[in-house]
Amino acid sequence: MASVTSLTDLVSEQLASALSATRPEASADPLLRRSDRADFQANGILALAKKAKANPRDLAAEVVSRITTGDVIKDVEVSGPGFLNITIADRAVVENLAARYADDTGRLGVPLAEKPGVTVIDYAQPNVAKEMHVGHLRSAVIGDALRGMLDFTGETTIGRHHIGDWGTQFGMLIQYLLEHPGELAPPSEVDGEQAMSNLNRVYKASRAVFDSDEAFKERARKRVVALQSGDKETLELWQQFVDESKVYFYSVFDKLDMEIRDEEIVGESAYNDGMPETARLLEEMGVAERSEGALVVFFDDIRGKDDQPVPLIVQKADGGFGYAASDLTAIRDRVFDLRATTLLYVVDVRQSLHFKMVFETARRAGWLNDDVTAHNMAYGTVLGADGKPFKTRAGETVRLEDLLDEAVQRAAEVVREKAKDLTEEEIQERAEQVGIGAVKYADLSTSPSRDYKFDLDQMVSLNGDTSVYLQYAYARIQSILRKAGDVRPAAHPELELHEAERALGLHLDAFGDTVFEAAAEYAPHKLTAYLYQLASLYTSFYDKCPVIKPQPPRDVAENRLFLCDLTARTLTKGMALLGIRTPERL
Q1: What is the mean pLDDT of residues 338-348?
Q2: Cis amide bond preceding 489, omega within 30
Q3: Average pLDDT over residues 69-76
Q4: % of the chain surpassing 90 pLDDT
Q5: What is d(CA 239, CA 230) in angstroms, rounded to the nearest whole number?
Q6: What are the distances in angstroms from CA 390 to CA 452, 481, 493?
Q7: Which of 7, 106, 333, 533 is most buried, with most CB under 10 Å away?
Q8: Do 445 and 567 share a domain, yes or no?
Q9: What are the DSSP calls for 259-273, one per residue?
Q10: Cα 231 versus chain centre, distance
């Protein structure tokens, strides 16, 4: 692949060279940013002038005198107290975009990271034998988008779905199944909806017996011990629950248009055998200590009521292990077996304190260090229109499947209203892509740490910052390309660009820089903001620069079609990284 150096980097290189030639003894970052008055504004002069004890405007003028204008930089002027306003040459804009357009790998000329690492992403963590609800949405959607962006930069990503498949409730479920055989059909004979129906039925029935029959409750507790000790019959029935749940999980993730790989579903149970070793190591290293019979880790800065320290409990006084032990064992596995350089956890913000303690414990043990880091990508809550956690009218948690089905239904109404030449089958297909895309985009366009309101009417709107607006922009471009007849997209660097063409072109060139920035900061909302601005700039370009009617001169038409096509490729690539499809026709 022939990678393309962005215009931002080309300008930065020239500025850095001019700055170095002006003051060899001082280093300065050009600090380029977009400006209303020019294509870029360089803000590094003030800091450099302060170090050199020079007049900022005089220093800026000296730097300008050392910049060669022509191929890339058309003009530079000193502004304000010592800023540099920089204008890019039209030819440079088109030639850079043409190089991106010529890249047949689908990467739009964006280079891979020089030193990529290995990131293990812990996301999409449903619980066995339980329905997925709206609370599971953000972990899945955000994690999938982060993985798409990191993969694009060249990072090796490994998914881990730390499903809840271990604990005391399974003693109750397994004991009930032992006493009522045949309640669960083989997973191969049910679909996702049937699987969840079976699991719900067994769970409710077992819970009813557990709450009313003390003898059954005691048998269930003994069954937990049998499970943890590896009893063959108990494990076989436990596996039935896991397999049945996977059928259901896959059906929901399929609706979300997400790929979940079976080998990446590694639940709490996978770390059961390693937890005693984790506890032993922490105690031997002096990281954990015994307190009232339990093995715990204390922290100076984490205290509760009456200023009492709040410990992380690695092992309970009765010898049992909890979440801390499985999470720490998972860290050992991911660092030493998977060779991860970064551990990324996409979890509810309410678990932030837990992971703060887990990560600090792992650092004290040496499992995390300068070469291996962990990040808690804590996300906020999905809210209803009333600003409270999203519930049904009856006050119950919203089933994720119901929410997705309603999104598709609303999207079908929008598509049907706009559709001119689509069959009903095509409308339903587009509705799935539009509806699911709308749900994902609304989530991703909000900073992960913030709460957001779930408003389907706004999500499927054709106006405003929605995925539907972007999808229609893409579909409009495809329609233009189909109607262009024998005029084909072709770059013409010799042409002078209209202001709207320049704005669109400069933004197109910034795609790679934006993806790398969003990936480095774990901020998918920065990519959605870029894509929305791209669609908006395209709309402005389309309004001001005729492409087909009225037909401009052929070379102008070809150049504008080239900008249209590159915009479409950039939109579809950016949306794909976020896990959102772009239909060819809408």
Answers
A1: 97
A2: no
A3: 91
A4: 70
A5: 12
A6: 10, 42, 53
A7: 7
A8: yes
A9: ---GGGB--GGGGTT
A10: 40
Distances (CA, A) of 247 to 158, 193, 293: 22, 9, 41
SS3 of 320-352: the string is CECHHHHHHHHHHHHHHHCCCCEEEECCEHHHH
Backbone angles phi, psi at 274, to 5 degrees: -90, -10
Phi, psi of 127 (to 5 degrees): -110, 135
The CA distance from 59 to 364, in Å, is 49
Q: Judging by beta carbons within 10 Å of its beta carbon (0-12, 13-18, 19+), is residue 182 exposed, middle or buried?
A: exposed
CATH number, domain with residue 358:
3.40.50.620
Q: pLDDT per residue over 246-261, tens digit each? A: 989 999 999 999 999 9
Q: What are phi and psi of 360, to 5 degrees?
A: -65, -40
Query: Is residue 81 in some structural domain?
Result: yes
Residues 55 and 24 in one domain: yes
Q: Specify the 3-state DSSP secondary structure of 290.
A: strand
Distance of alpha carbon 515 from alpha carbon 151, whole angstroms? 11
Does residue 393 sit within a domain? Answer: no
- Identify whether residues 539 and 501 lie together within a single domain: yes
Q: How many domains does the chain have?
A: 4
What is the rounded average pLDDT for all residues in the chain?
Answer: 92
Q: Which of 261, 279, 300 is the last residue of a domain?
A: 261
Claim to verify: residue 15 and residue 133 sit in the same structural domain: no
Strand partners, 344: 121, 375
365 lies in some domain: yes
- What the block records as the tokens of 379 is 């996300």
Residue 188 is given by DSSP the state: G
Retrieve residue 240's tokens: 């039935």
Give the CA diameter of the chain.
90
Q: Which run of H or of E encompasses 542? A: helix 524-544
For 416-449, give the DSSP string: HHH-SS--HHHHHHHHHHHHHHHHHHHHHTS-TT
Task: Give the angle subtended at the CA of 158 by the CAs of 156 and 163, to the nearest 5°.
Answer: 165
Q: Are residues 211 and 189 in the same domain?
A: yes
Domain that holds residue 573: 406-577
The residue-averaged pLDDT of 296-315 equals: 91
Residues forming beta bridges with residue 382, ordered by sequence position: 452
CA atoms of 503 and 498, how far apart (whole Å): 9
Which CATH number do you get for residue 81?
3.30.1360.70
Residue that terminates a domain, selected from 357, 376, 395: 376
Compute the distance between CA of residue 358 and CA of residue 324 in angstroms, rounded to an integer.
7
Q: Which tens digits make up the pLDDT trace of 112-156?
A: 999 999 999 999 999 998 889 888 999 999 999 999 999 999 999
Q: Is residue 583 part of a domain?
A: no
Q: What is the pLDDT of residues 394-449, one digit of tens each?
A: 677 788 999 999 999 999 999 998 887 889 999 999 999 999 999 999 999 999 99
Q: How far apart are CA 212 and CA 217, in angstroms?
A: 8
Q: Rounded to whole angstroms, how far apart are CA atoms 271 and 283?
A: 18
**Digit-coded pLDDT (tens) for 363-385:** 999 999 999 999 999 999 999 88
Q: What percent of the chain has pLDDT over 70?
A: 97
> Does residue 160 share a domain with residue 176?
no
List the CATH number of the domain containing 471: 1.10.730.10
For residues 288 and 193, membership in a common domain is answered with: no
